[in-house]
Amino acid sequence: MYSFDFERPTTLDDAVKALGQDEAQALGGGQTLIPSLKQRLAMPSKLVSLAAIEELKGVTAEGGVLTVGGGTTHGTVAAEASAYPALAALASNIGDPAVRNRGTVGGSLANNDPAACYPAAALASGATIVTNTREIAADDYFQGMFTTALDEGEIITAVKFPIPEKAAYIKFEQPASRFALVGVFVAKYSDGVKVAVTGASEEGVFRWTEAEEKLSADFSAGAVEGLSLPAEGMMSDLHGSGAYRAHLIGVLTKRAVAAAG
Q1: Which domains are delineated in the chain?
Q2: Which domain of life is it from (predicted)?
Q3: Whole-prediction pTM value?
C-alpha cells in the first residue's frame, strides 16, 4: 500500500464535494478497489468512503419497480429484495459472507467487472442507473470491460429494477472466487424477454438478442434449442476457452428459462 488521504462523509453532497478534488476516488465496499490499491493498479491521492451515507442504502418496492440504493450491500439485497426473487437469489450467491456484507450494488456496477453478476441483472431487467446528476438506461450504461457511462466523480445513488413476470439467473461459477465463468440472466416482461450474459465476452456484459426474439415468441427452454454464439470474441483463459464459454451460454440460458418457468 501507499499513503493517501481518507474521508468518510455522511451526506451525498459532502461526498460529491470531496470527489471534486484532484485524484480523489470513491470507495464503496472496497472488494475490488482495495486489492487494486495493494497491487498499485490504482493510486488515488484520496479515498472517499461512501459507507456512512445512509441515503444511499435500502431496498424498496413500489409500482412494479424494485429500487436498491447504490450503497446497499449484497447481503441486504439477498435478505430484503423478496419482491424480485431472482435478484435476491443472485445477491445471495455472490462471493462469501465477508464479500456480501461489504460489497455494494453501486460499487459492482461502477466497476463493471466482466465476470460480475449485477451487470447481467441490470441489463436483463432494463434497469435504470440513478446517479447524483442523472438517470442512465442500462442499455446505455455498460460500454465495455470495466467501462461505463459514468463521468469522473459521478456517484451511483440507486438502481431501479422493473420487476418481471418471471426471471432467473444461472451462473457457472469459478469455485475459488465465485465470479461467473459464465452467467445468464433471463427476465420475462409483458412486452418481451431480455437475456443478458456475463463472464463470457471480451467486451463485458451483453444482451443475446437472438435468444430474446425466440423466447419472446415461446418462453420455453426448447425455443433456444440449437441457438449458438461464435467463440470469436469470447474470453479464453486457464478456466475455459472461448468455445467452452460460448457453449455454456446456450446451456445456461436453457437452464435459466426452465428455472424461471
Answers
A1: 5-49 (3.30.43.10), 55-162 (3.30.465.10), 166-260 (3.30.390.50)
A2: Bacteria
A3: 0.94
How far is it, in rounded angstroms, from Cα 2 to Cα 193? 48
Please spell the DSSP secondary structure of 113-132, one letter per residue. Answer: -TT-SHHHHHHHHT-EEEES
* Cα separations in angstroms, 126 against 66, 141, 236: 12, 11, 28
In sequence order, which ranges of the chain are alpha helices (DSSP H)?
A: 12-19, 33-38, 74-80, 85-92, 97-102, 105-111, 118-125, 138-141, 209-217, 242-260
Query: Per-residue pLDDT averaged across 108-115, rounded?
Result: 94
Encode pLDDT of 52-70 as tens digits: 999 999 999 999 999 999 9
Cell numbers 459472507 correspond to 97
Q: Among 209, 251, 246, which Cα is nearest to 124's?
A: 209
Q: Are 173 and 180 in contact (CB under 8 A)?
A: yes
Contact 162, 189 (CB under 8 A): yes
Mean of pLDDT values over 235-255: 96
Q: How far apart are CA 64 and CA 57, in angstroms?
A: 19
